[in-house]
Design brief:
The structure is a homodimer of 661-residue chains. The first copy, chain A, is built from 26 helices and 20 strands. The first copy, chain A, has 661 residues and is of the alpha/beta class. Chain A folds into 3 domains: 300 residues, 3-Layer(aba) Sandwich (Rossmann fold); 183 residues, Thiamin diphosphate (ThDP)-binding fold, Pyr/PP domains (Rossmann fold, 3-Layer(aba) Sandwich), CATH 3.40.50.970; 126 residues, Rossmann fold (3-Layer(aba) Sandwich). In chain A, the strands form 5 sheets. A 6-stranded parallel sheet of chain A has the order 10-9-11-12-14-13, with helices on both faces. A 5-stranded parallel sheet of chain A has the order 1-2-3-7-6, sandwiched between helices. In chain A, strands 16-18-17-19-20 form a 5-stranded mixed sheet, with helices on one face. In chain A, strand 11, helix 18 and strand 12 form a beta-alpha-beta unit. In chain A, helix 5 packs parallel to helix 7 and helix 7 crosses helix 17. The N and C termini of chain A lie far apart (92 Å). At the A-B interface, helix 6, helix 7, helix 8, helix 16 and helix 17 of A face helix 6, helix 7, helix 8, helix 16 and helix 17 of B.
Chain lengths: 661, 661
């Protein structure tokens, strides 16, 4: 067998493992793995720096299958190159409950899955965050420790999604020349020919955004290799348009949408075997081909060993800092810094917007942590995400800590996912809470993957005033609380803001969204505690003077209103308590006893939040009083709006006393 | 005064009305109106076909201020050209509660506001839907009745957003050559120079997507006019890059981000007056300039009259059909067609997926209504949105009724908004329910504007099976129900699907999302009623044999499971009823008596939905039993998933009987 014949058969191993797994599952997508097998073979056998025996080696090249429906391509590669947890049994259990081989690649299900993909465009946008992280970490730690490529296989669907154009423009702007994207240019989408819906010149489009592009025959392995070599010399990110045939080898369905998302069927599969000269049993890879793949999987073992030696040769400080950051541990002095800062706040009692409080907290945090990377979708001065430690990351200076993401909320969120996945960095970035809608596709994946990304969402209610209903979130707190595994924080003052930041940074498997006000709020936590009270999710902020007749639950800017209402109620002879609820999700994690006691048995329960009621019944019951929004907001000065929508201490008192009668 | 001096002063009228209104409100965005005043003056005084005395004239050119933060540009234009409801008092009340002049243009607040803008990129994407509608309506009714342009002013922010790239690629594909976009190319975004985050060659990028582009000096009115004339001859959509100075005229702040979103301040405003030779009092436009504007506002009165004559000269059928469609009335035979169809369904009792049921309903609907325009984000065969009446709309044949939107959910949703706003058409289109996340930015605006757009969201739960958690919505029903003014329908069978479609089509001010299954469901409405039971939002589907011990509330695919549980409970001697809840929002609109009676007083209340609990307490109370999801789904065959997550009749029975003990 010539080398060329062998590498063709190596690609065929991917094709048939994939097609057979789909056939057995009677579900899945054979078209992409069969079409992109040559690209993947060239990449994994000649270029990719990786070590299946050490899947988490920090300096590995990253490979992202953005077209996640082609998951069997990735699973085949992981099996063939020798990842120990990707057995042939897993391949046979493709798409079965509990297998590592889910319908789409799920981060955490198997080693070598760098990110969860499937929702189109996300992987490509993740890869921009990964490639940026590589440059940042390289600037922080040098070529010895961080120097790798990020490779992506993307489909037409990825490129049509708006998120990818946001990510591409950002990557071009940042000149991320170690990012190389293979476009599986097969001219087919689910509905039929791509020309049904698109005539874009994708190469010209990425070039307009500061990329290089090349076009190759996606079934000519040497041409693909030459393109990669050229891309390695590029001073810009590169798109390699690989003209491929979807379902390559399938005798009647190749090159059509029939092979995209359904099993080939026995007859077509047999025809493909014949056409490609593949004679072994299903799920059996001939020994020589498997050996070749396994030895390709060991190609970088020497590189890995040399890298380990370089790490060990570093001074203890560099080494321990690198290891700490890759592990994602916070520095030992973090907690005490937060406590000292909180103490000062309780003494100073500043009256500031919580967005400002967030900036103040970040000033402390960014002084202690070197790994936080801030940013904003062009609302830096509004989101208050920039501190004295964070200067702009530019192509000339990747060693800084602030990203101007541009007006690209979705791309920003997905890039942050990529940064968190890469390791060594903790990304946080901001936009207005209402524009979480734009980022939601990526935010859901942050939660699904369970990674540490912190969304700083300011202007969190009608309290933003005149910008009006397009900019005023009313349903967003509820909609974000609806996402599983997502901490939604809404702090009430400077102290709670610091506590919420501490919790967000310590939370390694659950991402956080911090909702912050535009308007100033008084310090309500005037007595210092070392303890982080927000960790309870909800806690009694002000006790009733006697047995509580009224308990008021509130978050964020409405805590001040609740406290004012409490004062009035107490003056009117109605003992009343106030519970601050900075995080529903953390509250649910408390003991049943704690939860029951906190909700208490006051005859009147009131919830106050300048948003819709959804979710609040859990605190106040179905017959509780809710003071908040019932629809969209309006444009006007803040005082006029709170009065117009009846979110006032007077309204609380009137409603509560009405019920007490 | 020369013509040129006069037109400069006409532009200055926009500049000072805008800057003064922002100054008085002490809030707003003077930069864009001052920068884009020349573009707007040329467009409104020399090209735009419109009639301020008849703002709804169907054949008017559409003008969309995609950069909605520059709202004062639009309000100034409406006042100057003589829209009767845009008085100088309204200008003075800019951004005050109850004024027509909200912080961002709000559709419905004043005549001449064609769409709500502010969230960036939306207006540009709306305009693609408008321009497409113009071509479709032109194909249906001819040049005599429909023949107009769509003009847009977009900023850097609009172009950076992914949604705009989706819309631009779609417009290029469809060769919408009557769409002309002015890019206010002022090199400034909120954070500072655009170069902080972007280096895209926007002209090259749109050309890659099938547009023409031109570059002009945005303060040279004749050059702008020449560019528009060239664009009128284009066979493609056109981007006119207008190099402008943000805050043109402001002596120290022009050309910087300081003028973007804050009042100029008294000194700077005085300096601008001096620089531009503007001497009249605040909010006073010199009589000759106002006259010139008002006469520009009457430029198209003759065109309008001629158009009216052409309409009146049409045969009665054409005329009444055109008028009906523009009014948005449904044809008289619609309701009886639905009733006849429902009757047949209750007799035939087909067992089909509700996505298939939706296709069957659409086959009836599209046969009766000529104005429905279907589509999908490249999931036509999965969303079942195409019927025998709907063939592909192409640049060669705009007279058809189906849009292959491509893999562009956000652009699709915004384009549908544009179609609904244009008038004459009812857009519906599909994707998977989980990808409503991608479209949410536009879906929120559908609800805020209160327009008739119908989202067909299939694969609505873990019931989609093997594609796994990325594709399985669990929080999306709750998250969509959270949006104000949004009907979220989840029908249980063919009959309910037909009823939900009827309600969606009849709902003119509240948009609809119809969540539909991949899996087959039996017909549960086996007895025909002329009455649309889904109109109640929730209704008793199966009564208890005696006084109900258990009431089970369910939606969609879980209604079958609820009915099976009821059968078991009844067999075990526990009278049980089943309530189908196809639409929470319609239920809330019923009388208190109806709601109380329906929820009833069974000692055990159970809700079943293959999604999270959020929102269900309203039916079952805090101590009710919820059978559904508590986190993300998993990849596996449907039967395995329902069993794994415990969403079965057995689980309902066990939980209910456990509570009855």
């Amino acid at each position: 067998m010539t080398n060329s014949e062998k590498s063709n058969q190596m690609a065929n191993a991917i094709r048939f493992l994939s097609a057979e797994a789909v056939e057995k599952a009677n579900s899945g997508h054979p078209g992409l793995p069969m079409g992109a097998a040559d690209i993947a073979t060239v990449l994994f056998t000649r270029f990719l720096k990786f070590d299946p025996k050490a899947p988490h080696w920090p300096d590995r090249d990253r490979f992202v299958l953005s077209a996640g429906h082609g998951s069997m391509l990735l699973y085949s590669l992981l099996y063939l190159t020798g990842y120990e947890d990707m057995t042939i049994e897993e391949i046979k259990n493709f798409r079965q409950l509990g297998s590592r081989t889910a319908g789409h690649p799920e981060y955490g299900h198997a080693s070598g899955i760098e990110t969860t993909t499937g929702p189109l465009g996300q992987g490509l946008a993740n890869s921009v965050g990964m490639a940026l992280s590589e440059r940042i970490m390289n600037a922080h730690f040098g070529d010895d420790l961080v120097n790798h490529y990020t490779y992506v296989i993307a489909g037409d669907g990825c490129l049509m999604e708006g998120i990818s154009q946001e990510a591409i423009a950002l990557a071009g702007h940042l000149k991320l020349n170690k990012l190389i994207v293979f476009w599986d240019d097969n001219h087919i989408s689910i509905d039929g020919p791509v020309s049904l819906s698109d005539n874009t010149d994708q190469c010209a489009r990425v070039e307009a955004s500061g990329w290089n592009s090349q076009r190759v025959d996606g079934h000519d392995q040497d041409a693909i290799a030459a393109a990669i070599e050229t891309a390695h010399k590029s001073d810009k990110p590169t798109l390699i348009a690989c003209k491929t045939t979807i379902g390559f080898g399938a005798p009647t369905k190749a090159g059509t949408n029939k092979v995209h998302g359904s099993p080939l069927g026995a007859e077509e599969l047999a025809g493909a075997r014949k056409a490609l000269g593949w004679t072994s049993e299903p799920f059996v890879v001939p020994a020589d081909i498997l050996d070749a793949w396994r030895s390709a999987g060991q190609r970088s073992a020497g590189d890995h060993a040399a890298w380990t030696q370089r790490l060990e040769a570093k001074d203890i400080n560099t080494r321990s800092e690198f290891v700490r950051r890759i592990r994602g541990d916070l520095p030992g002095n973090f907690e005490e810094a937060i406590i000292a800062y909180k103490k000062k706040l309780s003494e100073d009692k500043p009256k500031v917007a919580t967005r400002k409080a967030s900036e103040m907290a970040l000033e402390v945090i960014n002084g202690v942590l070197a790994e936080t990377i801030g940013g904003s979708a062009d609302l830096t001065g509004s989101n208050n995400t920039k501190t004295s430690q964070t200067q702009n990351i530019t192509p000339e200076d990747y060693g800084q800590r602030y990203v101007h993401y541009g007006i690209r909320e979705h791309g920003m969120a997905a890039a942050m996912n990529g940064m968190a996945l890469h390791g060594g960095l903790i990304p946080y970035s901001g936009t207005f809470l209402t524009f979480s809608d734009y980022a939601r596709g990526a935010m859901r994946l942050t939660s699904l993957m369970g990674i540490r990304v912190i969304y700083v969402m300011t202007h969190d209610s009608i309290g933003l005033g005149e910008d009006g209903p397009t900019h005023q979130p009313v349903e967003h707190l509820a909609a974000l609380r609806a996402i599983p595994n997502n901490y939604v924080f809404r702090p009430a003052d400077v102290v709670e803001t610091a506590e919420c930041w501490e919790l967000a940074l310590k939370s390694r498997k659950t991402p956080s969204t911090i909702a912050l006000t535009r308007q100033n709020l008084p310090t309500v936590r005037a007595e210092h505690t070392d303890e982080n009270k927000c960790a309870y999710g909800a806690y009694e902020l002000a006790a009733a003077s006697g047995k509580a007749e009224v308990t008021i639950f509130a978050t964020g800017s409405e805590v001040e209103i609740a406290l004012n209402a409490r004062t009035q109620l107490e003056a009117n002879g109605h003992p009343a308590s106030v519970v601050s609820v900075p995080c529903f999700e953390l509250f649910e994690q408390q003991s049943e006893e704690y939860k029951r006691a906190l909700i208490g048995d006051a005859p009147v329960k009131v919830a106050v939040e300048a948003a819709i009621r959804l979710g609040w019944d859990r605190f106040i019951g179905l017959d509780g009083i809710f003071i908040g929004m019932t629809g969209f907001g309006a444009s006007g000065p803040i005082e006029a709006l709170y009065k117009h929508f009846g979110i006032t201490a007077d309204a609380i008192v009137a409603a509560a006393e009405g019920k007490l009668k």
